[in-house]
Amino acid sequence: MNPLDPFDSNIQLLQKVLDLRSTNQRIIATNIANAETPGFARKVFTFEEQLQNAITAKPGTLATTHSKHISTAPTSVSSVTGRVDEVEDKTGIGDENGVSVDMEMVALSENELLYETAAQLLNKKFTLLKYMIQEGK
Predict the structure, then answer these.
(1) Which superkingdom, per the lineage (predicted)?
(2) Which range marks the domain in which residue 105 is found?
């Protein structure tokens, strides 16, 4: 850890993960709330691949300078926004709503567990910073 930059890249990464997990939580909750709504298309939020690409991005990677440029990949963790996709109904029930409350509850539990893990890691980083500020006392 660089003492001159206490908020290192790991803290920024964990903050971003918490933001993205929070967004995922809202989307899953929306799916559950609309489980009985005819015609509602289930939504899935993905960000893991974008985040992985941002973490492994090398300096000199092409950046977009205009809104109409096609981005190749996020060049920094802060630029990762995730992606929301609609999932086509394949249940065949006829109401064109493919939301399974059981599957959404599993996704909700997984997301919550990963959120808590990131929050605990961030808490450990801040505890370490506090220890350093107090000169190990």
Answers:
(1) Bacteria
(2) 9-56+81-136
pLDDT at 6: 66
Mean predicted confidence (pLDDT) in 95-106: 91
Token pair recorded at residue 95: 């109401």
Domain count, the chain: 1
What is the 8-class DSSP label of residue 11? H
Paired tokens of 45:
């939020």
Q: Is 2 domain-assigned?
A: no
- Numbers of helices and strands, H then E, in the chain: 3, 2
Q: Comparing C-alpha atoms, which of 37, 41, 34 is closest to residue 89?
A: 41
| Residue range 71-97, pLDDT digits in tens | 666 678 888 999 999 998 777 777 788
What are 35-58's pLDDT values in tens digits? 999 989 999 999 999 999 888 877
- Whether 24 is covered by a domain: the verdict is yes
Residue type at 79 in one-letter notation:
S
Whether 63 is in a domain gets the answer no
Q: Per residue in 47-60, is it b (16+ CB within 10 Å) or e — as a string?
A: beebbeebeebeee
> Does residue 115 form part of some domain?
yes
